[in-house]
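Record Heme exporter protein C, 239 aa.
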Amino acid sequence: QLAAPPRLYQICGRLVPWLAAAGIIALATGWVRGFGFAPADYQQGEGYRIMYLHVPAAIWSMGIYAAMAVAAFTGLVWQMKMATLAVAAMAPVGAVYTFIALVTGAAWGKPMWGTWWVWDARLTSELVLLFLYAGVIALWHAFDDRKMAGRAAGILVLVGVVNLPVIHYSVEWWNTLHQGSTRMQQSIDPAMRSPLRWAIAGYLLLFMTLALMRMRNLILLMEKRRPWVSELILKRGHR
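=>
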């Protein structure tokens, strides 16, 4: 019953306000504490604070793609239309997060490496991830037949999954300029670690909010000729 478009549309609508409020609170907490109260780093000084923008975006750029892969597999194997729509709903948010990770990473790397960009394994594989997101979005819009569009986008998502371990382990497999993966180990000052956790949670909640909002729009587009959509429009028109 959850996979029924009217029911899923209703559930998404109920979740969005709560997720949005929680996301705003989490982000505000993380950023206020991170940018305003966390101590300066003994090596990087104040410049390290960009990690409160960069690290959550980098983490969820991969996390969102992994979620898309699960949805794509479900849609292709069990022919679930809502799973296919979920791929299309998540892709733009994932693309934005990946772009944020690349831009903030370049800004963080300039004072550390002396250059905005190097063809480092981590940076290059993250750039490939952005291209994969763009490809999924392009394929979704390239076909008038939604079933064909969903299948093409889903196949690309599954092919691109191989890039995720490359991104994650690139700093261990190759000699790179990029620092090791950020972990919540005890070596990080608790005053720095706690705001980062809040920011990571906030990015996740923001992603869920935006993805569900887009999911609702895609459901309406797909079901626009169904009676329940006409009834919904009439109800809103009378308010």
